[in-house]
Amino acid sequence: MWGRSVVAAAVLAAFLGSGGCGEELQKPREPVVAEVGDAVITIAEFKAFNARIPQGMKQGESNEAVKRNVLESLIDKTLLVLEGAATEVEQDSSFKKELARYERSRLMSLYVQREVVAKIQITPEEVQQLYRESGRDRALRLGGIMLESLQEAEAIVERLNAGEDFFALASDHSLHESSAVNGGDSGTYQVRDQMSPATVEQVLELQVGQISAPVRETFPDGDYYIVYKVLDEIPAPLSASQKAVVEELTLRKRAERLETLGDSLRLAYAPKVRDEAIGLLVERAADYGEIMLKPGDGDQLLCTYADRELTLQGFLDRVEATTERKARVADGAQVAALLHEQILPGLFFAAEIEAAGLRRDSLFVADLHSKREELALDTLRRLEVDRHLSVSDEEIRRFYDEHPEKFTMPETTLAIEILVAADTLAQRLAQALKDGADPGELAIRHTLREGALHHGGTLTLNLYTQSFFPDIYRVVQGMQPGQVGGPLKIDAGYSVFKVIDRTKELTPFNDEAERRARAYVHIDKSKRGYVKFVRDLRQKYPVKIIEENLQKI
Fold first, then answer.
1. What is the pTM of this model?
2. Which domain holds residue 332?
3. Which of 147, 175, 292, 383 has the highest Cβ tally under 10 A?
4. How many Å apart are CA 142 and CA 187, to the nearest integer?
């Protein structure tokens, strides 16, 4: 803990400085670059801290300024460490739980890496077998028809099954502009690992010429349904997916070895459970199944495993640590399942970890030290700054009023577009628009864009829809309402459009806006409070920079 380490360091420093062991045993003192309260920062510590900071995060107009700013950051950290020790933040219950959870997880990962993953062997024959069994030996060229709803997609499937032409339907109905102009043909060959899991599930077993069921895919502006057709296939080399194959085999073998290891540990530790103890747990289950032990119950033995014991209280503590909630049970079968499926396997692995001495592993020790320090600083901030913060309704409303940019929807441009096949027609339509013709009427009469007729050719262009109309979106950014654009050559033909309106809509002050404003205010107050807290620590713990040693770095 911090308190002990600081005291121990001070005692050790005093002991070494006293000459009590004889001059011949004293080591040269590491040069000190700063004194912070009773602590010191050595040049070696400064260099180690500096090396951990990414170059892009270092600030300063010169090397000397950068060096001094890094030192100031290390001084601030040292101040917080001293204050954490003084206020005993490591006694905080949340700190203890979080550190214990991290420690268990990290030790288990280290154990699995050494005893399971490191012992996995994968042969070339296994790689070849999975490569072929998983369909990675095929590269498919897919055609797709993207639609807004499942009902539309199912209707397209029916029309395809009735014999209608895929390319014609894709050209007329697909919302995917760049492929629709080519009859839905993506033009690229993809192996399994380049497709989404949903697509793989529907198309991998299809042969050339076959149609998939509708596949739901998520895009930045929402979900769409795609009907795929396998247009062609070519052999795919192992090199295209070897990494994915090896990773999949590793995961499989890891799961198999873990299961085998778990079974062997269960035999080795041979747990013996006392049925009467399970009965007592069920008897003590209060309302909603939460177990409430009576005085003296906790020390009763629930089971033994090898030369170890698990008491009723130990079981409840382990359940809470594992599941992060109090144990709730309805009957003895539920207690037994919880014990055998979660608690005992964890105890077996914990015993193996202890026997392997992994807590002494140098990498684990360093990792745990860093995590302890990180959690302690977070806890100190929570206890000394954040829990004292409050945000008033007036502050929330003032932030909303003074920062409209944080509550404004992305800029949206409304344009009416007319898509035609020939440049000459596009030129005539552009001139007609400039002469004052109604763009909506022209769109209804001429546009080829499927789905645009029911809203008079209107396109809504913003960050969420730009991927569907990339060329048009780019051009209208430099246009004002009333201006005419085009003809613009795009994949689907020639586009002519008139900008109708451009808006940036402010989100009303509703519950969601209030929640966001509260979060902004709280974050700002927390940052300012933390800066003040650290600054005040410099009054509590004197800081002295040893300039001559700083210059030597």
1. 0.70
2. 269-356
3. 147
4. 8
| Tens-digit pLDDT profile for residues 436-452 | 999 988 888 888 876 65
User: Are both 282 and 221 inside the same structural domain?
Assistant: no
278 and 212 in one domain? Answer: no
Number of domains in the chain: 4
Q: What are the residue ranges in the chain where pLDDT is below 70?
A: 1-28, 287-288, 450-455
What are the beta bridge partners of residue 185? 143
Tokens of 116: 């399971």
> Comparing C-alpha atoms, which of 506, 489, 487, 491 is closest to residue 412?
506
Whether residue 184 lies inside any domain: the answer is yes
Q: Is 549 helix (H, G, I), strand (E, B) or coil?
A: helix
On whether the CB atoms of residues 241 and 191 are closer than 8 A, the answer is yes
Whether residues 495 and 413 fall in one domain: yes
* 221 shares a domain with 292: no
Based on C-alpha coordinates, what's the Rg of the chain? 34
In a domain, 47, yes or no: no
Q: Which residues pair with 235 in a beta bridge?
A: 138
User: Domain of 224: which CATH number?
Assistant: 3.10.50.40
Residue 523 amino acid letter: I
SS3 for 305?
A: strand
Task: Quickly list DSSP for 485-507.
Answer: EEEEEETTEEEEEEEEEEE-PBP
Same domain for 418 and 496: yes
Round to whole Å and give the CA distance between 526 and 432.
59
- Amino acid identity of residue 414, one-letter, is L
Measure the CA–CA gap between 16 and 23, rounded to whole angstroms.
10
Check whether residue 223 and residue 282 sit in a common domain: no
| Residue 229 DSSP SS3 | strand
Which three-class secondary structure state does DSSP give residue 135?
coil
Distance CA 380, CA 88 (A): 9
What the block records as the tokens of 114 is: 């050494």
Q: Is residue 490 part of a domain?
A: yes
Q: Does 431 share its domain with 481?
A: yes
Q: Rounded to 5 degrees, what are φ and ψ at 38? A: -90, 0
- Tokens 């590491």 sit on residue: 30
Does residue 45 lie within any of the structural domains? no
CB 89 within 8 A of CB 373: no
Of 235, 256, 284, the last residue of a domain is 235
Render the burial of 191-219: b for 16+ CB within 10 Å, e for the rest. bbeebeeebbebbbebeeeebbebbeeee
Q: What is the pLDDT of residues 388-438, one digit of tens each?
A: 999 999 999 999 999 999 998 888 999 999 999 888 999 999 999 999 999
Rounded-to-10 torsion of CA 307, 310, 314, 319: 110
Using DSSP's 3-state secondary structure scheme, residue 31 falls into coil
Residue 263 contacts by C-beta under 8 Å, 6 or more apart in sequence? none
